[in-house]
Design brief:
By secondary structure, the protein is mostly helical. The protein has 19 helices and 2 strands. The chain is globular and about 65 Å long.
Length: about 450
């Protein structure tokens, strides 16, 4: 498909909502608020914003300018823009697409969890249960060999329908509906949460600066989350950028995406932690917070069934917008490489994702005793296949991001960067020299620190 005839976003608003939808996922809603409170509240937020500036913004900008320049898929930027003597860079393009496919195999399973909980909540199946019973209920579902697969398939059907519709009539159209809906639900939950008696303790947990908690581990956590939260290194931003019109000003768009991602994460924290502290329940991180602690919180709340449904529907919406974006790089790759239609490419990718996802979820079920060794945190750990896939992509993403930053900072012609940042002279880009310096030196150094810390367990 030629660059001139391919489906595109209609304008900046569509691009903004789609890319924000990609960035805002489950990690924003359950991980970022917790690590903010754990590492010093607003003290952590200050460090996090600095990390967004040196890692998140430069890498989004890099992926945007690469993707829009070639307007095909996430592989072609590394093939077409590399010097003739440096054609090995195409490997990084293949690498990013592979990472995104691995992620969707398990992310679709986790997305199914959120939809299952939304239905269970509205039906009142958590009412009257104590925390141990809620935990047992989640454990039974989590370790089931078939339930997660059924909900994965249901969730994937929604995703498949949207992607088949295309960029303008599918991804953009539904992003314009889903993202405002997500924001509205968060605001409703925020109002309910902060009006509970005792909610101030939760706000203190989130925002009261405590620099004594901000250690090296906390700074590295901020650096790592700044990288992962914006969907970097997984071909998404490059793929979406291929659908961006040339007249769109990339600089403001990137800043808007980074800011919106952070704001939504903080609003999610306001929805969660004041309620948790209001009922004297100890906050936890990860799945334990979302699937065990929060249902117990809603049980203590007037109209708890309604607010439980709204929260898990919020999670489902965030999961859906992210899942759409994670699948799109593989779909775009198939369309361009094998010259097949969008519908066929989407069905193929979603089918393989369901098959591999069904296999991975057995790591929590019938294959729970099958372990794979992984070198992590300075030691070898044995992981089931589900956790192994998640850990593998967590380690691969910084590698892809590192080589992308090196490619933009050191390999491609600087005239290409300037042309894309200015939309061929239409806009001023006074930050051009600063961007080149940061992407050349600071961003790859920061990413290397993330990878070395995660692999060898430094400072933890």
């Amino acid at each position: 498909m030629s660059a001139g005839s391919r489906d595109r976003f209609t304008g900046s608003i569509g691009v903004f909502l789609a890319t924000v939808g990609s960035a805002i996922g489950l990690g924003n809603i359950w991980k970022f608020p917790y690590i903010t409170g754990h590492y010093g509240g607003s003290a952590f937020i200050i460090v996090y914003l600095i990390c967004i500036a040196i890692v998140g913004v430069p890498l989004i900008m890099s992926e945007f300018l690469l993707g829009r320049r070639t307007s095909t898929d996430a592989v072609d930027p590394f093939r077409l823009l590399a010097p003739k003597k440096s054609k090995g860079w195409i490997v990084n393009g293949w690498f990013t697409v592979l990472i995104s496919f691995i992620i969707i195999t398990y992310y679709s399973i986790i997305s199914g969890w959120t939809l299952f909980y939304a239905i269970e909540s509205i039906l009142g199946h958590f009412e009257g249960l104590n925390p141990e019973q809620i935990g047992a209920k989640f454990g039974a579902y989590y370790t089931s060999s078939w339930q997660p697969v059924i909900w994965q398939i249901i969730f994937m059907v929604f995703t498949l329908y949207i992607i088949i519709k295309g960029i303008k009539n599918g991804i953009e159209k539904f992003s314009k509906f889903l993202m405002p809906l997500l924001f509205l639900i968060i605001i409703i939950l925020d109002i309910r949460s902060v009006t509970l008696e005792g909610a101030s303790a939760g706000l203190d947990f989130l925002f009261k600066p405590d620099f004594s908690k901000l250690n090296i581990e906390g700074i590295l956590s901020a650096l790592g989350h700044a990288f992962f939260t914006l969907s970097l290194g997984m071909a998404i931003m490059m793929t979406y950028a291929a659908y961006i019109k040339k007249e769109v000003n990339l600089g403001p768009l990137v800043l808007q995406v980074a800011l919106a991602d952070t704001v939504i994460a903080l609003l999610a924290g306001i929805a969660i932690f004041p309620a948790v502290f209001a009922f004297g329940i100890e906050p936890a991180s990860g799945p334990g917070l979302v699937f065990v602690t929060l249902p117990n919180v809603f049980n203590h709340m007037p109209f708890g069934r309604l607010f439980a449904f709204l929260f898990f529907f919020l999670l489902s919406t965030a999961a859906l917008t992210s899942q759409i974006s994670i699948i799109e790089p593989s779909v775009s790759f198939c369309i361009n490489r094998f010259n097949i239609g969008r519908k066929k490419a989407t069905i193929i990718i979603c089918s393989f994702a369901v098959i591999f996802g069904a296999l991975l979820t057995q790591g929590n079920g019938i294959l729970k005793d099958f372990k794979i060794p992984f070198y992590l945190g300075g030691k070898v750990v044995d992981l089931n296949i589900f956790d192994w896939a998640i850990t593998l992509t967590d380690q691969l993403l910084p590698i892809a991001g590192f080589f992308t930053s090196i490619f933009v900072g050191w390999v491609i012609e600087k005239s290409i960067i300037k042309e894309e940042l200015t939309s061929y002279g239409k806009y001023k880009a006074g930050y051009f020299k600063l961007f080149v310096f940061v992407i050349k030196y600071i961003t790859p150094t920061a990413i290397a620190v993330i990878f070395i810390s995660n692999t060898f367990g430094l400072f933890s």
